[in-house]
Structures are given as C-alpha cells and as structure tokens.
C-alpha cells in the first residue's frame, strides 16, 4: 500500500520564522506580554497612495477578470524601469514574471533551472525557505558557512572549495536575510566572475535591495558582471520596501528561456497574481517614495539602538547590519552554561528559555544554518524593541 502523503511534500520543514511568530502570537492571544522579533515584517501600514490605488482597482470591472499569467503589462514595464534604476540592468518586459510574493519567484527560479541531483551552493546563514525550494526542484543543497568574523559573507575561495562537477547554481542574497550583511561591489564582482568562469547560475534574491543604510548600495551581479545576464535570475518584490507583505506581490527577471519555463509553470500553478495587488504595486513603484524613506529612517534608528543595547549583554555579539531589518547575533558566549537551573547548549534551547523566562521571541540559528546564533527583526515599534532588549539584559545580567 502506498504512503498517504507524498514523500517529497512530507519532507518539507515548516517555515521556522513563521512557526516562532505563530507561537508568539498564540501566547499574546492568551494574554502573555510577549514581544516578538520573529517575523520579517514592517510594522508600518502600506503607504496611503498605494492603498488608494487598490481601492480604485477594486471598482474597475476589468480587474475582476483573468489577465496575463506573467503579469499586467503596465506592472512589468514598471519593474523593467526599477530593475534598470536599481540593478543597473536592462531587460525587456517579456522577461519579467510577476509572482505571488518573492517566495513563489524563488521556488520557480529553482524549478526552471535545477534538475534532479544538481547541486546548489547556499551561503549560510540563509533564509529558511531556500533549502526547501532547492529540494522541491530535486536539487541538493551545499551549505557554505560564514560566521560573524566574516560579517556573514562567503568568499570566492569558499565557493570554489564547495564547487563540484554537479554544481548548477548558487543563491546570493544581498542585503541578507537573516544577517543584514551587504556584499560590496568588489565582492559581488568576484563572485560573478567566479560563477561566469565555471558556468554556475546565480539566483539573486534582492527583496531587501532598497533597505540599506549609511550610503551603502546593494549591487546586482548583472550590473558589475554584465556577462552574467544569461545565467542570472533576479528575484524581488514590494513586500519589504513598501510594507506590503500581505499583498503577495513579487517578481523574477532573467534570461528568456528561464522566464519562459517559469511562466509555463506559473500558468498551471497559479495563473495571474491578484489584479488588485498588481495595481497597488504599480502605484508603489511609480508613485512618491516619501513614506518609504520615512520607514527607512525609522529602521536605521532602530538598527542602531538594537545593536548598541544588545552588545551590552555579556557574551552577546551583535554586528552592525548594513541592510534589511535584522540583527544576527553570535550568542555562543551564552551557551554551555546553566540558565534558569538548566544547562543550555544550543541556540534553539536558548531561544526556548528566553521565550519562557523573558517572554521575548527570537528565531534560533538552527533555522538558518549552524547553532549558536539568533535573529532579531527590528521591524517593530521603538518602545517594544527597546523593552524586549532590556528584558534580555536583565535576564542575562
């Protein structure tokens, strides 16, 4: 008798970040004063002009019907303009596929280029969804870890050491989730030249592209190594920059053959993204950016507070992130010790202890790679951000 559930699907692990966030919300609903740093979600409302555009779109009957599976022509043109402005790369609108959030774009990117048994190099720490998307495409994840001493950024020598005859692609995420690290232009160029020399595809997740600080720029590999345009897929979306996580609007841009494959898959998987979300995204990309800049200023302020206060905790090392809205802390100095009358050896155990003892929710390093680290999102209110860290200071004083 065959098994009831597909082995492939049964092997998928639940999103660790969403799992922690769900647990925190359940405790909050039960009346516990839990402060959650788990979800990578801006606490701001979507800018008003975007919401207004969606309101008008709802009333227009043309948005009540199917539209092209790859996205509205007007939105794809807006994405072309953004990609040229921010990624320094020119594409025709025919090579843009609008997706239900960045997650679908990541999934379809690997589905389009990875065959059974192909290896995909994944710099670690990594976003929890990447290895699952690779596995669903039949790929084999090859992790390459870079610790806090490298600002969580892998080197070409590390990538080369991991490369084999089966290496098909690598994942590049800059600014990084979960670390907030941003690869410099020279680092991106070195990785691009290495990939070009060895025929390695790059799936570049640029969802945090515009969430950068101190004048830092997040460079796209296709901008600094233009020859990589034929073997690079850029993934992006409006979720993080425009506080639109719930609108589920992302996209992928890449070579014509890969985009055609992704489009064919999407035509059977979901068809077009909600037209209301697409109209909202057009307003986001083409409209005023004042509220986006205000959000960025708030993130910058919170970033500095979080790092400064976390580093006051003995044994807690919090590097200053240059992008995204996460602090990825090295907490190995707190492990192998007794806390709350119990020996704690892993960051998973540490996060469980912190949630029970201080009512603070953090995501353990095990969700993103090796143990010994924790991710904190500072995309929440200023008061809650500080109060939660003060609870940690008191707990580990």
Short description:
This protein is of the alpha/beta class and 397 residues long.
Task: Characterise the protein shown here.
By secondary structure, the chain is an alpha/beta fold. The protein has 2 domains: 7-45 and 290-395, Aspartate Aminotransferase, domain 1 (Alpha-Beta Complex), CATH 3.90.1150; 52-286, Aspartate Aminotransferase, domain 2, CATH 3.40.640.10. It is 41% helix and 15% strand. The chain contains 14 helices and 14 strands. The protein has a 7-stranded mixed sheet, sandwiched between helices. It has a 3-stranded antiparallel sheet with strand order 9-14-13. Helix 3 (48-59) runs antiparallel to helix 11 (275-286), helix 5 packs across helix 10 and helix 12 packs parallel to helix 14. The longest helix is centred in the last third of the chain and has 21 residues, at 290-310. It is globular, with a radius of gyration of 21 Å. The chain starts with 6 loop residues before the first helix and ends with a helix. 48% of the residues are buried.
Secondary structure elements and pairings:
Blueprint: H1 7-10, H2 16-29, E1 35-36, H3 48-59, H4 73-87, E2 96-99, H5 101-113, E3 119-124, H6 129-136, E4 140-145, H7 156-162, E5 167-173, H8 185-198, E6 201-205, H9 221-224, E7 232-237, E8 250-253, H10 256-269, H11 275-286, H12 290-310, E9 326-330, E10 337-339, E11 342-344, H13 347-358, E12 360-361, E13 363-364, E14 373-377, H14 382-395
Parallel strand pairs: 1-12, 3-4, 3-5, 5-6, 6-7
Antiparallel strand pairs: 2-8, 7-8, 9-14, 10-11, 13-14
Helix pairs in contact: 3-11, 4-11, 5-6, 5-10, 12-14
């Amino acid at each position: 008798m065959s098994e009831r559930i597909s082995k492939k699907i049964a092997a998928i692990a639940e999103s660790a970040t969403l799992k922690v966030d769900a647990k925190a919300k359940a405790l909050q609903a039960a009346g516990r004063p839990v402060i959650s740093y788990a979800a990578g979600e801006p606490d701001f409302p979507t800018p008003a002009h975007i919401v207004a555009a969606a309101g008008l779109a709802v009333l227009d009957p043309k948005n009540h019907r199917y539209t092209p599976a790859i996205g509205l022509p007007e939105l794809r043109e807006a994405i072309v303009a953004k990609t040229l402005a921010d990624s320094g790369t020119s594409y025709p609108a025919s090579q843009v596929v609008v997706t239900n959030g960045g997650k679908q774009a990541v999934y379809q990117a690997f589905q389009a280029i990875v065959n059974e048994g192909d290896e995909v190099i994944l710099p670690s720490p990594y976003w929890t969804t990447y290895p699952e998307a690779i596995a669903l495409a039949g790929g084999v994840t090859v992790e390459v870890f870079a610790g806090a001493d490298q600002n969580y950024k892998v080197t070409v020598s590390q990538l080369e050491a991991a490369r084999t005859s089966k290496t098909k692609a690598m994942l590049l995420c800059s600014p990084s989730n979960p670390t907030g690290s941003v690869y410099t232009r020279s680092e991106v160029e070195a990785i691009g030249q290495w990939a070009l020399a060895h025929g390695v595809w790059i799936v570049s997740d640029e969802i945090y592209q515009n969430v950068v600080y101190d004048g830092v720029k997040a460079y796209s590999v296709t901008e600094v190594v233009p020859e990589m345009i034929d073997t690079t897929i850029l993934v992006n979306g409006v979720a993080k920059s425009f506080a639109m996580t719930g609108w589920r609007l992302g996209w992928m841009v890449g070579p014509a053959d890969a985009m055609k494959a992704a489009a064919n898959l999407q035509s059977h998987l979901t068809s077009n993204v909600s037209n209301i979300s697409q109209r909202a995204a057009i307003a986001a990309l083409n409209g005023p950016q004042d509220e986006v800049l205000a959000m960025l200023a708030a993130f910058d302020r919170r970033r500095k507070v979080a790092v400064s206060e976390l580093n006051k905790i003995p044994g807690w090392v919090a590097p200053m992130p240059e992008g995204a809205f996460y602090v990825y802390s090295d907490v190995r100095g707190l492990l192998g010790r007794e806390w709350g009358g119990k020996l704690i050896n892993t960051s998973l155990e540490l996060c469980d202890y912190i949630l029970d003892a201080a009512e603070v929710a953090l995501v353990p390093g095990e969700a993103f790679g090796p143990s010994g680290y924790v991710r904190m999102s500072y995309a929440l209110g200023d008061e809650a951000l500080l109060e939660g860290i003060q609870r940690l200071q008191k707990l580990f004083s």
